């Protein structure tokens, strides 16, 4: 009996090795596959793309190192650059609550190098309050990994006033320029208007082209305080 058990164990190991070798050396075709996560990697192991459900979704990665927050919140596809740093993705959610209300979102984003979202295509719907649009943002050149580590360190400061002041110094405008500012927005607003906003480097809208929910068109010029200085017609 012991010889039979040893033989069975040996055959199991051999079949396993042959299976693994086959997967490594040959292309395999599937008609259908159920999987919770797929990692696309380079030959050196760097992530290139992760496709996953919500529980197995990945958190932010910078040059192969996790940072910022844990995974488990972003079902969809996350992209990575040549250095193994996240540089965009496609995420989607949507559910109806017990009371009949619902929320839904789909977003595709592309990140600035060593920073965050600079081009986004996003749809959000909170029980009928919908926005759909394309946004182009201006971002500071500071490294996002260093910023997040500094932010996390500041968040551990016990005194709330000291913590708030430190966060403002870190994340607030530098030389009058904000960390992130929307420059171009083209989309559909919650008031059902179609609009194009062009903003200055501080993110302040300076020109707005709008067609409202009744079909009335307008063109507005705004000053740096948001006041309309000229309107057509």
Write a structural description.
The chain has helices at 2-25, 144-155, 160-171; strands spanning 37-41, 47-52, 61-62, 65-66, 76-80, 86-96, 102-111, 117-126, 129-139, 180-188, 194-199, 205-211, 217-222, 228-232. A hairpin with a 2-residue loop joins strand 3 and strand 4. The model has no long low-confidence stretch (mean pLDDT 91). The protein starts with a helix and ends with a strand. It contains 3 helices and 14 strands. Helix content is 21%, strand content 41%. It has one domain. It is α+β, with helices and mostly antiparallel strands and 233 residues long. The chain has a 12-stranded antiparallel sheet, with no helix packed on it. A two-stranded antiparallel sheet has the order 3-4. It is globular and about 90 Å long.
Summarize the main sheet: 12 strands, antiparallel
Number of domains: 1
List unreliable stretches of 5+ residues: none
- Gross morphology is globular
Provide the succession of SSEs: HEEEEEEEEEHHEEEEE
Tell me the distance between the termini. 95 Å
Number of helices: 3
- Work out the helicity level: 10-25%
Spatial order of strands in the largest sheet = 1-2-5-6-7-8-9-10-11-12-13-14
How much beta, percentage-wise? 35-45%
- Mean of residue pLDDT values: 91
Radius of gyration: 25 Å
- SS-based structural class? alpha+beta
Tally of extended strands?
14
């Amino acid at each position: 009996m012991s010889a039979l058990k040893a033989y069975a164990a040996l055959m199991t190991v051999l079949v396993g090795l042959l299976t693994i070798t086959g997967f490594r050396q040959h292309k395999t075709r599937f008609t259908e596959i159920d999987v919770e996560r797929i990692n696309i990697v380079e030959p050196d192991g760097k992530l290139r793309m992760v496709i996953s459900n919500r529980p197995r979704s990945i958190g932010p990665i910078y040059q192969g190192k996790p940072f910022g927050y844990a995974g488990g919140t972003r079902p969809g596809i996350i992209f990575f650059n040549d250095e193994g740093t996240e540089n965009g993705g496609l995420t989607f959610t949507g559910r109806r609550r017990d009371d009949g209300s619902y929320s839904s979102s789909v977003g595709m984003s592309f990140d600035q190098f060593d920073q965050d979202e600079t081009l986004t295509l996003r749809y959000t719907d909170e029980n009928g309050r919908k926005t759909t649009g394309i946004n182009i943002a201006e971002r500071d050149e500071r490294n996002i990994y260093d910023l997040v580590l500094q932010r996390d360190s500041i968040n551990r400061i016990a005194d709330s006033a000291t913590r708030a002041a430190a966060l403002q110094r870190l994340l607030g405008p530098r030389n009058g320029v904000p960390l992130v500012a929307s420059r171009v927005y083209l989309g559909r607003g919650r008031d059902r208007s179609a609009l194009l906003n062009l903003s200055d480097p501080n993110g302040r809208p300076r020109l707005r082209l709008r067609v409202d929910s009744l079909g009335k068109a307008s063109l507005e010029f705004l000053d740096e305080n948001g006041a309309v200085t000229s309107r057509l017609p």
